[in-house]
């Protein structure tokens, strides 16, 4: 058997949606009580972990056990690290300005608007983007070369994301850096090492799902959507619009890659006539 067990996978799709929305609705209830909708960012990684664990339970007896365990562990490590990092970063802070601006446009109840445009939307995105996590666990083929490549790409992405977040956190913790642009470490090679890391994580999980042509065709939707969101959606584009007027940011963008890492460009010498 090399195809997916479609009937069992269809049930899993419904359960995975339930797991994603359960995390988001629980978060909404807590955030509404606290008046702090930034909590949804913490729920993002946790929701993927819930989907991975639910799928691992349901896929028992259908997919290859090695692939099931590897994908579940990889998703949980990525998701829980992200949730813990965001929780620590936001401790003691008020509402995120992004949600303040969004909710200021609410045509009626702010809570109802937040539920529709933030929590339910993100629950749907978790379900869609988690397709490789779900598909991989129903692939009956043992781990092969594509899985090894996926594990390497995933691990590289996790390192970029984790190290980038650590370096930025340490930079911000130093009062001497207040108002300055972070351009050290990985941030000197790409303006978004954490987003680039996320990009690699999801292409890695996609490769882990590529045990069959059917699985690859279904799972590829996820990294394509995530890549679009990171570069053109709520990731890189919004953050750079927010930072555009900060002193020194234009010079930083001129010498540093916008996404894919590369050595920083040297600033031109004042007497060099070349642009």
From TrEMBL:
Pfam families found in the cross-reference section: DUF1295
Which PROSITE patterns does this one have?
A: S5A_REDUCTASE
Annotated region described as Disordered, given as residue ranges: 256-275
Q: Mind telling me which residue stretches traverse the membrane in this protein?
A: 6-30, 42-61, 113-131, 138-160, 200-231
Q: Which UniProt keywords apply?
A: Membrane, Transmembrane, Transmembrane helix
> One GO term of the cellular component aspect?
membrane
* PANTHER family tied to this protein: 3-OXO-5-ALPHA-STEROID 4-DEHYDROGENASE, STEROID 5-ALPHA REDUCTASE C-TERMINAL DOMAIN-CONTAINING PROTEIN
Q: What is this protein called?
A: Uncharacterized protein
């Amino acid at each position: 058997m090399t195809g997916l067990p479609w009937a069992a996978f269809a049930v899993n799709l419904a359960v995975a949606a339930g797991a994603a929305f359960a995390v988001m609705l629980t978060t909404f209830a807590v955030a509404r009580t606290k008046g702090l909708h930034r909590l949804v960012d913490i729920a993002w990684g946790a929701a993927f972990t819930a989907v991975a664990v639910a799928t691992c339970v349901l896929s028992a007896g259908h997919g290859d056990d090695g692939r099931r365990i590897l994908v579940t562990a990889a998703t949980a490590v990525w998701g829980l690290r992200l949730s813990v990092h965001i929780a620590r970063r936001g401790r003691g802070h008020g509402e995120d300005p992004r949600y303040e601006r969004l909710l200021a446009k609410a045509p009626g109840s702010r809570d109802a608007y937040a539920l529709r445009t933030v929590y339910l939307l993100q629950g749907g995105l978790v379900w869609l983007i988690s397709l490789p996590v779900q598909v991989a666990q129903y692939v009956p083929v043992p781990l092969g070369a594509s899985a090894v490549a996926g594990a390497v790409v995933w691990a590289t992405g996790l390192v970029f994301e984790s190290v980038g977040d650590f370096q930025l956190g340490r930079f911000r913790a130093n009062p001497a850096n207040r108002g300055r642009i972070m351009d050290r470490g990985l941030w000197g090679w790409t303006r978004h090492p954490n987003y680039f890391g996320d990009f690699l994580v999801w292409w890695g999980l996609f490769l882990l799902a590529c045990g069959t042509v059917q699985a690859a065709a279904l799972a590829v939707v996820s990294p394509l959507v995530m890549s679009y969101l990171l570069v053109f959606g709520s990731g890189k584009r919004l953050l750079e619009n927010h930072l555009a007027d900060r002193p020194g940011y234009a010079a930083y963008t001129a010498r540093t890659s916008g996404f894919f890492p590369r050595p920083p460009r040297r600033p031109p010498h004042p007497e060099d006539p070349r642009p």
